[in-house]
Specification:
This protein has 12 helices and 10 strands. By secondary structure, it is of the alpha/beta class. The structure holds zinc ion. The site of zinc ion (ZN) has 6 residues, from loops.
């Protein structure tokens, strides 16, 4: 099945009280691991690409070519969206051009008026070309590709203003953080989430920084309207741990253990296991 935008899968998720995972990709192993797991579990999935990862993978066209090739050659039949994560205005335009099916425009660092203006323009382009679009209000804590957010809570009225522009889904800061959570983290602000959902109605809400949020908080967030959850760091940690183990056990020195297809296999399997665990937690299994 060719790429789809994220609108239908997220509308269904919101109505069905589960969430679709966005798993960020970094290379071929990542992409293949996520797609195969989604297919095995009969789950819809969103592949996230940050601008930094896009550059690393030799550009957005390379990413589109790789993903489209895999959808066909791996016989992927579950709905898959290819989504730009935390896109700049220019990056969003490049991805639309390259063949992504979904974009996020992160205008959270602009004053609200400018965020609205630029979001409005991109909403019009996405509507015309059939892409879904995610907007962000209230910056998300931690560091992602050099952008450091303070983890503030979004103003629910600003969320309503942005939601009314016709975006497909909305990321609202509710105290969530990218990367590992610090020991003194205060937890998610369900009060903010509840207020945002009350004002934005059926709009699917997005939770960034899914790594390390306790399972009960994830479930509560889903019950309050979160229908897309972004996972990035957790797959990186799983890959790193499995690869470290392989080398520390000296397996790369045995026989043809140096072959990249062998060397990268434990990391690949670890990503698959992480994605499976998340899809089960989010409730998207058998929702394709
Ligand atoms: Zn994010």
């Amino acid at each position: 099945m060719p790429l789809v935008n994220a609108a239908e899968m997220l509308t269904k998720a919101k109505a069905g009280h589960y969430a679709v995972g966005q798993f960020n990709i970094n290379n071929l192993e990542w992409t293949k691991a996520i797609l195969l797991t989604a297919q095995e579990l009969n789950s819809p999935v969103i592949l996230g690409v940050s601008e930094g990862a896009g550059k690393y993978m030799a550009g957005y066209k390379t990413v589109v070519g790789m993903v489209n090739g895999m959808l066909e050659e791996l016989n992927i039949t579950v709905p898959v969206a290819l989504h730009l994560d935390h896109g700049s205005y220019e990056g969003a335009k490049k991805c639309i051009e390259a063949g992504f099916s979904s974009i996020m425009f992160d205008g959270s660092h602009y004053p609200i008026e400018e965020n609205i203006e630029k979001t409005k323009e991109l909403v019009a382009i996405c509507k015309e070309k059939g892409l879904s679009i995610e907007a962000e209000v209230g910056s998300i804590g931690g560091e992602e590709d050099g952008i450091i957010g303070m983890g503030e809570c979004a103003d629910p009225n600003e969320c309503k203003q942005i939601a009314d522009l016709g975006v497909t889904m909305l990321a609202a800061g509710i105290g969530n953080i990218h990367g590992k959570y610090p020991d003194n983290w205060k937890g998610l602000s369900f009060e903010t989430l509840d207020a945002v959902q009350k004002l934005t109605g059926a709009m699917p809400l997005v939770l960034h920084g899914g790594t390390g949020i306790p399972a009960d908080m994830i479930k509560k967030a889903i019950s309050l309207g979160v229908s897309k959850i972004n996972v990035n760091t957790e797959c990186q940690l799983a890959f790193q741990e499995a690869t470290r183990k392989y080398i520390e056990e000296g397996k790369d020195l045995q026989g043809k253990g140096f072959d990249p297809r062998k060397l990268l296999a434990p990391g690949f399997e670890a990503i698959k296991a992480t994605v499976k665990e998340k899809m089960e937690l989010f409730g998207s299994v058998n929702k394709a």
